[in-house]
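Hi R.,

Here's the chain you asked about this morning:
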Amino acid sequence: MCGLTAIFSYGDNAPNVDEAELLRMREAMIARGPDGAGSWLSDNKRVGLAHRRLAIIDVGPTGAQPMALADEAGNIRLQITYNGEIYNFKQLRAELMAEGRKFTTQSDTEVLLHLYDRDGVDMLRQLRGMFAFALWDEAKQGMLLARDPYGIKPLYFADDGGTLRVSSQVKALQAGGAISSTPNPAGHVGFFTLGYVPEPHTMFKDIQALPAGSSLWIDKTGAKSEHKYFDLTQEMAALEAEGPTASAEELRAALTESIEHHLVSDVPVGVFLSAGLDSASIMALTSEVSGSQMETMTLRFDEFSGGSLDEAPLAAEIATLYNTRHQTRTVKGSDFHADKEKLLAAMDQPSIDGVNTYFVAKEAADMGLKVALSGLGGDELFGGYDSFQQVPSLVNGLGWVPGIRTLGAGFRILSGPLLRHLTSPKYASLFEYSADYGSAYLLRRGLFMPWELPQFLDAELVREGWRELNLLNNLNTTISGIKKSANKVSLLESAYYMRNQLLRDSDWAGMAHSLEIRTPLVDATLFTKLAARGFSKQDMARSPATALPDSVLNRPKTGFYIPVREWLQGEGAEAGAERGGRGWAKSIYQETYAA
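And here is the predicted structure, written out as tokens:
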């Protein structure tokens, strides 16, 4: 897990790479890679790569980056800067060695170089892991950018028509000093609509995210080629068409295999442990395959002590059952206020979530961990959210009514002012947003509805942003061709909430404390084995050989709640009083993006 950056001056009139700019971008990501730093500049000064390293695999100097692949005469043929982990790199390395290729390191980075040298962009389908990289091909005089299937690892770029700039963080690109901070209306509207910024948008017009599961090639003439090598919608449609089934034994085998891959590391791996089924199942299965006693850690909050939201007692029970070295760490409101400025600085793109992950990562790093497993992804894969019932119910219960959207708009106009005083105003859109799955999902997951935004954002910015975002159309396109309601909701939750918020939060919040967070339940191979099979979270939780206690199996779902609203009390009536994440969203925006 690291921070990468690259600059490619491809235009005839583009200036040579400014090495000082490249290093400013790199040094803005020290927390992502405190274990080392490197840079490389091509002889003609047209290409620069840089890297900050968090050493997890091949931790010695041989694993340093940027890393080159040279010919027998010592001439550089390929150069890469890379962030992530390739969990099947040992198998790929053995395959490449059997073909006669020679390796000088034990790193997964060198495997990427040789694999590209052999297969070009087709290499991407062979990788199991989380990754983002920029690779320079000297012979072809071009750069390849690539990102893992789910988008676990971020990759952002800015292209001004002559120079391509790339980095793991939006704020690192800005730190270079050469990119405009002109706001992107779609990013601002997306944040307030969803509580996060949906890719490929960012808060800035000149910076965008490379979409998950895709690559971008650009050569010295500026010619570009985009390639989508993994698409969740297409994969789900294929699984539906096959009508696959799987047994409980196959479920267990698939989960165990994914965990085994996610334990690949040259440093100790811990587990985030809550009282929920996802992390408890991960812990139970990890204890079977790890071969060593695991480190586990749970957060508790004084505000929840002794109540149903206090996960510490049950987590301790799970830790005892599986013989882990367990610690419970308490986070107080004073800790939140003390760290708030640092937290917002680390938040690369705004998100109303992530505070929980920030503090759990902080405590894990304080324990000495560099890698931790998370149960993220279980709800999306196994239908754990209430949205799996609520969204289909809305569409089936109201969506069939002719003209429901038009009638609903009238209801919203009349009821909105009243509902503002009773509950979330967005529920005035109950009828207007129930005609299709995309609309119903937005109603369920939305933070503010589009009609609310002009109340606190510039009206023209809202109009332009909503048009560019094209959100309802994109939501429905995500589930195009999918027949089963559960699979539709699974796709929407995976492609939007999980990808753009949960995974992104895990990245910035973990990296703020130099901690790599791994997600065994978010894995493309696992998806193809278990999605659309109808497995539930209870099925997953009953897969370990040593059963989870009934107190965990029968516990109602609560989610990983953190008392941000309570902590915000006293910072202003609006921040503390608005329901849910609305006050927190406005607080984040006011402190980081409002002019």
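One quick note: The chain has a mean pLDDT of 92.

Cheers,
M.
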